Every structure is written in C-alpha cells, then in structure tokens.
TrEMBL record:
This is GNAT family N-acetyltransferase. It is an enzyme of class 2 (transferase). Keywords: Acyltransferase, Transferase. The keyword Transferase applies. Residues 12-155 form the N-acetyltransferase domain. Its EC number is 2.3.-.-. Pfam families: Acetyltransf_1. InterPro entries: Acetyltransferase_Butenolide, Acyl_CoA_acyltransferase, GNAT_dom. One of its GO terms (molecular function) is acyltransferase activity.
Length: 162
C-alpha cells in the first residue's frame, strides 16, 4: 500500500510552530505539488519567516521518526479578522488524514479564542479538500494580478461552541 493512501501509521503530534521551523515551512510551501505548473509563480518567492510564526497562531503536525520528528504539515490561524491563512500538508503525507487533523486542531484553537467562524480563501486544487473537511462555500475571491491571476473560492468553517 502506498504511503499516499495509507492511514496515519505513526504517532502525529501537533505543536505550536517555533522560529526554527521557518525554513522547513517555507520549503513545504514552495515544494507543494499543488502549486506546480501555472500555479508555481504564486509560491516561488514565498517565505514563512520567524516573524510570521511569532505573529500568528501557527501549528505544525510532526511525525515521529529517527531524526526526532518530521514536519508533515502546518497551518496558520489569524484571529482578526478570523482566517485560516495557510494550510499545507507535505506531498508525500497527503491522503493520510493529516489535513483533517490540522483542520480539527484549527477549529479547537478558534473555539478557544471565542471565534464562531473562520474564513479560508482556497487554492483551486484544494477546493475539494475544504468541502470534505466541512467548510461551506461563501463566495469567490477575485484575481489580484500579478500575484494571483485567477479567481479563488472562499470558504468558511463554522466553529461549534461544544
């Protein structure tokens, strides 16, 4: 069975991102297969710096391995206005439930911060993922050339108070 389709087989920990994660997170964004081809320019110079990590609620999913933990994905939650700013899962780790774990963690963080909704402007190839993860389509973010030359779907996660 390929790792892309197998369930999570190793312990996964979600922890707050720290400044030393910045280079790994930047590599994850720039190396994302979802941004290949016509989308590559959108992340070519993208940088997740220590300043970004310190300013936002950024969390990483780490898998246990012989090197003390491999970053499998991450997200960033902005509180005002409430938005899921970034969510990436390593290409080799996709299809194993890590994205869903990150979304569930984000919703828990949003709930703890008193939020009832979190918006996300989706990358087109991620649209189906957000639907499956429970987000509701609320509109379209219009293209903003030259940075983003295509329209993008807007979603909203509704956060229950539990």
């Amino acid at each position: 069975m390929s790792s892309r389709n197998s369930p999570i087989s190793q312990p996964i920990t979600i922890r707050r991102a720290v400044a030393r994660d910045a280079k790994r997170l930047t590599r994850l964004v720039r190396g994302s297969g979802a941004y290949a081809g016509k989308y590559a320019a959108a992340v070519a110079g993208y940088r997740v710096g220590p300043d970004y990590i310190e300013a936002h609620r950024a969390f990483v999913a780490v898998g246990a391995d012989e090197h003390g933990g491999r970053v499998l994905g991450f997200y960033s939650l902005v509180l005002a206005p409430p938005e899921l700013d970034l969510l990436f899962v390593d290409d080799e780790a996709q299809g194993r439930g890590i994205g869903r774990l990150l979304v569930a963690h984000m919703q828990s963080e949003a709930r703890a911060a008193g939020l009832d909704r979190v918006k996300v402007v989706s990358h087109l190839p991620a649209e189906d993922f957000y639907h499956r993860a429970g987000a509701v389509r609320i509109g379209t973010a219009l293209a903003n050339p030259p940075a983003v030359p295509w329209d993008r779907p807007e979603f909203e996660f509704r956060v229950s108070s539990e």
